[in-house]
Amino acid sequence: MPSPDLLRDLGVRSGPDGGTLRVWSANATAMDLLLFDERDPAWTTATIRMTRDADGDGGDVWSATSPELRPGARYGLRVRGPKGQRFSPDTVLIDPYARGLARTGTGEWRGYVQDDAFDWGGVAKPRVPLDHTVIYEAHVKGLTKLNPDIPEQLRGTYAGLAHPSTIDYLKDLGVTTVELLPVQQFVSEQRLTKMGLANYWGYNTLNFFTPHAAYASREAQHGGTGAVLREFKGMVRLLHEAGLEVVLDVVYNHTAEEGPRGPVTSLRGIDDRSYYRQTADGDYIDTTGCGNTVDYSKPAAQRLVLDSLRYWSEEVQVDGFRFDLMATLGRDENAEFQREHPLLRAILDDPALRDQKMIAEPWDVGMGGWQVGNFPDGYSEWNDGYRDRIRTFWLTDVAHARAHGTAQHGIGSLAGRIAGSNHVFSSQRGPLASIDFVTAHDGFTAADVVAFDTKHNLGNGEENRDGSSDNHSYNHGVEGPTRDRTVLAARRKAIRNLLGTLLLSAGVPMITAGDEWGRSQNGNNNAYCHDGPLTWMHWERDDWQEELLQVTRTLTRLRRENPALRPVRFGRFGETVPSATQMDWYNTAGEAMSRENWDDPSQRTLQYLAASTPEFEEFNRILLIVHGVEAPVEVTLPAHEGVGGYTLLWDSSHDDISGLAADHVPGEQLTVGPTSMLLLRAHPPTV
User: Fold this and answer.
1) Which residues are catalytic?
2) Record: fold of 11-113
3) DSSP code per residue over 329-395
4) pTM for this predicted structure
5) What is the CATH code of the structural domain delimited by 577-683?
6) Hey, where are the domains in the chain?
């Protein structure tokens, strides 16, 4: 099989004589290009036999040229192959490289030759440095569908996301980078359709080059796939004008063709044996849990991903990618994960992708699938260990202490997570390899993780079997909604602690849309099949939600203003390294932490003094106090060379600290409220 570098110019390429289509298949025995009427894509206007170039440098590339293969043309493939393989010679297939899609009246898909022309108006990518990045994970439709400040016809669309009210909200919140749940064209699984449900999240990709049409405005949808693409590009341009980045959640690990008896739409009918991972007997090897797994030991599959990434990066101008179940993309011919897999390395080395943010979901569901910390330098990774440890400290440890008198864990492992998870990511990669999060699209929201002990997924139609049962959550004494003021106060402070830890930790923080004001999904921790008010953002909020939103804004501002909170490198013992973690750790008495302090479950209070060692920003030093016991504690503020005083910046026990004493001195005793966090800025002595 050829190198992926030799599989050039696949898909449609326009020329003076029309266009040429090139499709790779090693096992096909014949292939036809079908052209369809522009007004009726069910009507075939021409069938052209494609020729195979098995000896050229492309290797097993089939091609055909037609003057009709020009922008606006609808086209498809019909492929034949050996018996015993999953060819479907009567099915019209989608070119894997189709940059546009059109539908027939019966719901079949046709490729569309796209006119990519677009006026970017000189707007450049923001290129936000990774240490300044605050990610906001959002759903295109869910983010704006209920926003009354957006014209009704634009709500839930690409244009709605780019509306001034949305942009103002995101800028005011203090995020820098919008990470969109899948926007490549997807379809719902057959199982969900039969149940009357739909795939809301979008992790079921039909085509790797085309924006999901249903997220475009009705006007753009009526204008065809070209108008959908222009609306998407317009969204990117307007977000870039505002200084906001766009990162796409991309699903390359599997496709919408599902299991071996699933629909045949593209890769399965073109060359199932080559594109999908399977045994010699043709049984699928599924490491994704979605019925099929794309085989990235094969150069053709590698080339498909690289070309798709290039298209979105160069033609659509997005700023990066979050790779769903990325361990699958690093599995070799034996289905074993390889850190230096050719595809993982090629993504980083591709000149067209070099400045993109690359974020791995570093696991899949196959053997050896959990690979957190094992990706090459250049990738940041979702850090599920961070999520679990933060939740454990603030939630399940508190529950255990209420039931048994003491928590199960001390402060040590939490401190390691706050400092950037050095034990997970190598010194070479540094803290920015960690995407810190306490919630994501899958799992409980922040409001639900403090209100439910167990998942409540009956509405998903799977008798509550789906979704994780290991949530590290705590309902604070009542399962679900309550009017008990004591319970509500404890829950709301717990959310503030979760968000405070997230936004004050080393690493790259990711906020899930709605957590900033306490969005609930009524205990559903796997709401992938609910497209409605349960999963949409609400824009009319209660007073406590507005207060929480203001807390989140404050935290993003404090992160932005204090470089000590966002180191680029791990510090080295005894050395001063520019932009590295420089931390000193103290107990409640203001003394250096001992080994016993770290490991003792009864010791759940920590003070750490972090100093920036700047390359591009002024010197900065902060003191973070973390107290994980449901009783107040007196701490002695640490004395440290170069520190003459402290100013209180934030206290999670209070929505507003304006009435609290702000200035303090080393050696002073300070009362820290039950289960709370404080952030103080350290000042040098006055001369």
Assistant:
1) 324, 361
2) Immunoglobulin-like (2.60.40)
3) GGB-TTS-B-TT-HHHHHHHH-GGGTTSEEEE----SSTT---TT-SPTT-EEE-HHHHHHHHIIII
4) 0.97
5) 2.60.40.1180
6) 11-113, 577-683
